[in-house]
């Protein structure tokens, strides 16, 4: 984190991306850093409402001053053009001062489709991947491997 490296945890659902990212965030907090774990949906909601809701502006200011920000399930759902631009501007604002950990089940080549804009996707990836380790997780879902049912009893 002191060198402002990012990490992208990429792989199919259930392979432990969120679990690993949460552990990294917890370790950062325990080490005295300002680290936050937010879903992509929470980030988009903050960006959408920060100019109208005081608590969301406080949240936005907290996030832009963080040492580490975990963005969980990035690009899970398509973004409207105005939110794609807002998200890019947010990342552009923090990428030189905050370590960013991303979890995603989408390959970077699929991000353009989710953002409906290849230029924004390329610029976003340029900032996130600048100083970054990409970890590809593989395998079957841990949830499905350990699926339980109440009918077995």
Task: Give a verbal description of the structure.
With 153 residues, the protein is α/β, with parallel strands linked by helices. It has one domain: P-loop containing nucleotide triphosphate hydrolases (Rossmann fold, 3-Layer(aba) Sandwich). 47% of the residues lie in helices and 17% in strands. It has helices at residues 17-30, 40-49, 54-64, 81-94, 108-115, 118-128, 142-145; strands at 6-10, 35-39, 68-72, 99-104, 132-136. Strands 2-3-4-1-5 form a five-stranded parallel β-sheet. It is globular, with a radius of gyration of 16 Å. The chain starts with 5 loop residues before the first strand and ends in an 8-residue tail after the last helix. The model has no long low-confidence stretch (mean pLDDT 90).
Structure at a glance:
With 153 residues, the chain is an alpha/beta fold.
Which secondary structure elements does this structure contain, and how are they paired or packed?
Elements: E1 6-10, H1 17-30, E2 35-39, H2 40-49, H3 54-64, E3 68-72, H4 81-94, E4 99-104, H5 108-115, H6 118-128, E5 132-136, H7 142-145
Parallel strand pairs: 1-4, 1-5, 2-3, 3-4
Helix pairs in contact: 2-3, 2-4, 4-6, 5-6
